[in-house]
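Human: Respectfully, please carefully check these tokens:
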Amino acid sequence: MEPRVTVTPATVKQKAVVTVKVVGAPKTCRSVQARSDAFVGTVALTKKTKPPMYTGRAAVSGKAAPGSHQVVVGGVGCGKWTAKAKFTVPAAPKPKTVKGTVTSKVGVFVRRQPTSASAATGTARYRQTIGLICKKAGQPVAGNRTWYQVSMPKGWVTARFVKAQGAVPNCK
């Protein structure tokens, strides 16, 4: 009987843990290991007697690329054999943007950095709705240190003159 490998769950996010199970490995194996380009490292599988199998848990790297990944399992001291299985890392969802409305009657500059000393990359008009990606502290503008990152045009606007229509997440 050829050894069979299963990986559960079959779809897993980055930084999650999967269970690797091998059934049908030769009984003479001194050790059985599983590896994948998505794992943090090689995983030593523990032998279970009922039913005869090897099992272990593997951490998926936070840098694992989205898509299909192969797990290769092999034994030491029990002849040359390998068994393979696959699992999938889904693409990270795109962050949702929160809408914001420009409240300054003269509009606002979109800047390269969260400071009024930074070069302008564009403007947003009075009452224009803009997409707010995230927020962070920057140079204070009229007592307000919050700046929003925007995508069109790409850059930063001061929160002093933009009213967010929901909770804007902090920038990472």
